[in-house]
């Protein structure tokens, strides 16, 4: 009789019988009762499947928990960085306000110094007028003394003549008593004439002494006033130089030539005039010295350059378009497109803030566009001096119109998320001759000036 060899499953069931004995699960219904045999191999497969499910559940739970912990730490780190960044922005704003106050104080001191210089120049001119009057009075006194001395000499000559006549008459036939009376009369006349002459000479000498003392005092006052004027001019020169250097540095950082802007602005502020008068007309005031005039003219030219440069700086985009709380979300240059279109050029700087935050003009200018624009949403464009232009995109509201003139710091719109935008922010551009440049160049250059 031929025997059959047991199958592999039968051998495995037999081997597992010791650990997983065969079990039967009875299922009873109204008509019949059935049972299901659970062989050892089936039980092993069920246990293995259950173990895999439990292991997968544990691993998945661990991964989710670790991801939650990582996200929490990244969020906390982002919040710390945001707080640190806002603290730095607050510090920079405080420094900017402090520098602005220092500039205002320096301007007030400069204006006060100019007023003092004007008063000192007026005093100097008045002193020179008094000096001329004293010189004229001294000349008159000298003429009076000369006339008095001439009268004295004439009286002395007359006395000598009378004395000679007396000597001649003493030899005549007149009696001695008559000659004595004549001598007494002559001596009395001579004594009176000499007394009057001595009195007039003493008065003239006293007047000349007083005039000399006044002239010396006036000369001393003039020297002291000239020294004070020199100190004031030196202070003004130093103040103008220290006030002009930050402006020149700011303009150089923005690639602007100071000579170019001064020429441009002088052409717009060149009004002069007045009646045609002869050259020798005088106003009654003495002219200052050549050196003082040259230094004063130099200070006035420096003041003119400082004023024109500040006026020009108001016309370039050195102002901040956002003054409320914000954060930089994207800078100028090539970046990954937020809509997944690969690498793209970003022609401006993005300021993210609260919806409806005020947007301000960065410089004096004229509105060249105010309305929708492809990709920019609601957009405002301002035209400034020397081919400069600023663009403000993704606005929620526009507050200016085409052709309107605006000043630096004037509100032109509200922050929004119109156009091709992923969230509330301002897209800010600076263009030079219609070519975009990095706006941070202007903002960093103006950090310690405005």
Structural write-up:
It contains 6 helices and 14 strands. Strands 3, 6, 7, 8, 9, 10, 11, 12, 13 and 14 form a 10-stranded antiparallel beta sheet that branches. A two-stranded antiparallel ribbon has the order 1-2. The protein has 450 residues and is an alpha+beta fold. The longest helix is centred in the N-terminal third of the chain and has 131 residues, at 40-170. β4 and β5 (343-346) form a beta hairpin. Among the domains are: 103-263 and 289-313; 319-332 and 346-445, Glucose Permease (Domain IIA) (Distorted Sandwich), CATH 2.70.70.
Strand content: 15-25%
Based on CA inertia axes, which overall geometry fits?
Answer: rod-shaped
- Which sequence of SSEs, written as H and E, runs from N to C? HEEHHHHEEEEEEEEEEEEH
Give me the number of helical elements: 6
Please give the number of β-strands: 14
Q: How many angstroms separate the termini?
A: 113 Å
Q: Oligomeric state of the chains?
A: single chain
The major β-sheet equals: 10 strands, antiparallel
Class of secondary structure makeup = alpha+beta
Q: Rg from C-alpha positions?
A: 53 Å
Instruction: Give the mean pLDDT.
Output: 77
Low-confidence runs: 276-287
Helix fraction, binned, reads 55-70%
